[in-house]
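Thread title: Can someone regenerate the structure for this chain?

I was given the following input by a collaborator and told the matching structure tokens would be attached. They weren't. Posting the sequence so someone can regenerate them.
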Amino acid sequence: MKRITAYTGLFLLLFSVAGVAAENPLVGTWKLKSFVTISTSGEKSSPFGEHPSGYLSYSPDGRMYAIGTADVRITPHDVVATDDERAKLHKTMFAYAGTYSVLADRVIHHVDISWNQAWNGTDQVRFYKLDGNTLTITSARAKSPLDGKEGRNVLVWEKVEGRR
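Best answer:
Regenerated them for you:
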């Protein structure tokens, strides 16, 4: 009887995790393809260059992380970067993690930890659009932590296929 109960519990756990993934199309890992900033005046720029790198991941248990870097970054002259090198590296990246909530047209990132301490404990609203294996995330209008200008960020991500 204990064995049947254990198998039933395992089945229900696996079924519920698979069900969450099926109901939530954001679950999985996404690779960054582009990062464009649109100012309030409509001016577009690519603050991380034409080929930024990064990953965004949503897990079935409600956790998420995002990390990205510019396509051109300095390489420190030594294992321990100088203060100037650290500042340049910091300006060419973003990273944060926490939990998330999915609504009809938006996902809210509840930030626990971040490269920018001011984001810790905040809710970052992101509007999303799915088109096949492409996920477009647009930030709510806000002051950019990269340059202080008001606008929106539009990041395009491509779904990473699972390992076989």
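Residues 5-21 have pLDDT under 50 and may be disordered.
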